[in-house]
Amino acid sequence: MRHIFLIILLFIVVLPANSQTGEDSVKSTVNRLFTAMKNADPDILLSCFSDSVIFQSLSTDQQGKTIVKTESVHEFASLIGKLQKNDADERISFDVVRIDANLAVVWAPYQFYYKGKFSHCGADSFQLIRVNGQWKIQYLIDTRRKDGCMP
Hints:
Blueprint: H1 2-18, H2 22-38, H3 42-47, E1 49-60, E2 66-71, H4 73-81, E3 88-92, E4 96-100, E5 103-114, E6 117-131, E7 134-143
């Protein structure tokens, strides 16, 4: 009887402590991306993305026209790898996380600091897919602006 009690107690204590919700695992992938940026680690950064990732930014030109710029995630990782640790510090807040089967969406307002100084703000929009049990960023588009930011 004592062994059964210990086994039940083990399940009650250990399983909830080790379980991670789907939302937590999606957030973990996004947070790993920003940790890799902050640590100037291009290999970990690239591991956050799927093999067919689309990486884009929205901005406006001097006439106020919206510009969509598609970038190479490999070039971005290379740039991050040339920085010093803590040079690229993007601070996000998770506003929305939604999951359906192997698809997740994240909306995350952010503030970006470069070498300790506030640079710009905006929002990141992520689409993630679950590949072999791991969440990978399939699509990332962000806005970038200097006005209306609250550093």
